[in-house]
Amino acid sequence: MFLTSGAVVVVALLIKCTEAQASASLSDCHNHGDTRYCVLPNGEETAVPESITAAPSVATAVAAADAQTTAVTDCHMHETAHLPRFCVRGDGGEVMAMVTAGAIEDPPPAQYTGCHSHGEELFCYGPDSEETLFAPEAAAAAIQTGASSEGQEEESSSEGRNCHFHAGVEHCLEPGETEGGLSASAAACEKIDRSYDMPIRIGTLFVMLITSSIAVFGPILLVRFAHVHPGGYIFTILKQFGTGVIISTSLVHLLTHAELMFKNPCLGPLKYEATTTAIVMAGAFLTFLLQYSSFRLTDARSRTVLSKSDSQHAESINGDTSVKSSQSPAPTVLHNHRMPKLDDPLSVLILEAGIIFHSAIIGVTLVVAGDSFYRILVVVIIFHQMFEGLALGVRISHLTTTAMLKKLLMGSAFALITPLGMAIGLGVLDTFNGKDRSTIIAIGTLDAFSAGILLWTGFVQMWSFDWLYGDLRDAGAVKTGLGMFALISGMVLMSLLGKWA
Predict the structure, then answer these.
(1) What is this structure's pTM?
(2) Which pLDDT value is given to residue 398?
(3) Chain centre distance of CA 32
(4) Closest CA to 380 of 194, 172, 189, 208
(5) Sign (positive/negative) of CA torsion 80, 81, 87, 89?
């Protein structure tokens, strides 16, 4: 019995030794379909049974062969891969050549030789004697997956983000984020480097100059050369349309943009939440104070002139006190003389100042907007400036006591300011950062201050004066209806443009 058991053990040991010898003599094992092949010592390729390939000694031999690979062959491309150059190593597994993007465009060599290891990494020499790193198949798949997901993430982030412009300054929100509800990181507030289409920006500068000039000079030249009556239907429609434009500009564009600027996360939380409306109130008050002071000075000058005229007239009729008394102006006459008029040059100048302040900002921020939104934005701004130029030109044309040269100069200031701002924007294109804290404060302050100016001018000098004290107070039904329709149209159209700018 003991002899039988010993014989069994001996036979088992002989079988194991035979398998170990066979596995040790095999090399360059690889797969053809589901069949495993290895190379015999004489160089012939033979199919290997599963019992042998499953032995631990075979795994060790394959690992050793993998580590001792001297060449990789059958190099080919994978069209769908991010780095599409693969070769077959000695054990039949694929390895990926970690070559540069420029080299990928070249056809792969048939093989790489002189393979050696640096630690756990495999390096081989190509035909140009350059050393190339090869990654295992699993690592190659991971790299491809990572590159693909990275591209998809970048694409989805650009598509999923809500990018828009506040007064021409780009602002992007991630999905689910709201205005003013962010805590911006330092990276989010850095300048975005992008390429700009310079020819289209230079071309639109001249388009802006031409359209602004047509809008502001049109009403002035109509009155001067076509002798269109300022009180007729045409100018009533233009005036009220312009009034609606100014009211909408002050509220929908300037006030809204100023509030969004001061809520920008790159600025941080404000210690005084009513900063925007306080600046608007300051702009309105300073406009009122300037006009009130002007009226008081004009009134004082008128009183002095009238007093001197009365004294000279009284002396000329031998000091007749009754005549002197009869020539004294009645308070009601003086009051009518002092009634504010819409054709007051100072009122129009203040209106123009409010328009010019934010037109300069529009010019700068328009140019620095990204190409993806530039074409839409420039069309909106062209209409924006045309409507404002029309509103200003109508008011300038009503200055009956102002010389034509001065009217043209006032119109030129508006026509040139936006192209000038665009030229400045072109000069700072590579350095302008709309998310910089000082830039946000400057734009927000000027927008809010301009809103205050236009609110006072639009409501007091234009809207209320025309309808409560001007020619529309007792106008006929047709003229009143046209004026009201034009007023509402100006508000609606300018507010519609507020969706984009």
Answers:
(1) 0.59
(2) 86
(3) 57
(4) 208
(5) negative
